[in-house]
Specification:
Helicase, Ruva Protein, domain 3, Dna Topoisomerase Vi A Subunit, Chain: A, domain 2, 2 domains, two-stranded antiparallel sheet, 13% strand
């Protein structure tokens, strides 16, 4: 029976890093030993940043983007087009679209996409809040900016059915985006053109 020669605090940090998406056991061990060798202030800065992340950030009660203040800066900005609503899967998609500087409306963050394989249904996303917001709002156009993946397309179709009959223009980002890709990895020029060339959403 093999004996674990690592001290318990070291093994615990490796285990915690390994729980993060995209980080396997080897990467987790490399990060842990890097921090072990690093100056104390670097490790403590990381610890403080993690604590601040959890203590000071929250979801906006209007759009569900991450924020320090509620409502968030975008929802509070009276200079934005309040008749235009862009629906995205994740907060990182908001960052990507803002970087394009081609959009000046409001957002709604779903926090995921419908994926029966992973056990994610409509009730697990911020879809009910979206429908209620649209019904109460004064929107003229809803941009369904879910990712061009199977899950993103399924989510967009579901949203189209839920929002049908509200007499609001539904559009989808233009097809300049790579199929199977994520918005957060798309360059700002391509994303800007996709926004400008958005089309009526049809089944």
């Amino acid at each position: 029976m093999a004996t674990n020669v690592l001290p318990r605090p070291v093994q615990r940090l490796i285990d915690e890093f390994a729980r993060l998406p995209g980080i396997g056991p080897k990467s987790a061990a490399r990060l842990t030993f890097y921090l072990l060798r690093a100056a104390d202030d670097q490790a403590f800065d990381l610890s403080d940043a993690l604590r601040e992340l959890k203590e000071r950030t929250r979801f906006c009660s209007v759009c569900f983007n991450i924020t320090e203040e509620d409502p968030c800066l975008v929802c509070e900005d009276l200079g934005r087009d309040r008749t235009l609503l862009c629906v995205v899967e994740e907060p990182l998609d908001v960052v990507a679209i803002e970087r394009s500087r081609a959009y000046h409306g409001l957002y709604h963050v779903l926090h995921g996409a419908i994926s029966p394989v992973e056990g994610v249904g409509p009730e697990d996303l911020r879809i009910a809040e979206l429908v209620e917001r649209v019904q109460k709002g004064n929107f003229k156009e809803i941009i369904l900016a879910t990712n061009p993946t199977l899950e993103g397309e399924s989510t967009a179709l579901y949203l189209q059915r839920r929002l049908a009959g509200l007499n609001i223009r539904l559009t989808r980002l233009a097809r300049g985006l790579p199929v199977g890709g994520d918005l957060e990895y798309t360059d700002e020029i391509t994303l800007g053109r996709a926004l400008e060339g958005r089309q009526e959403f049809k089944e």
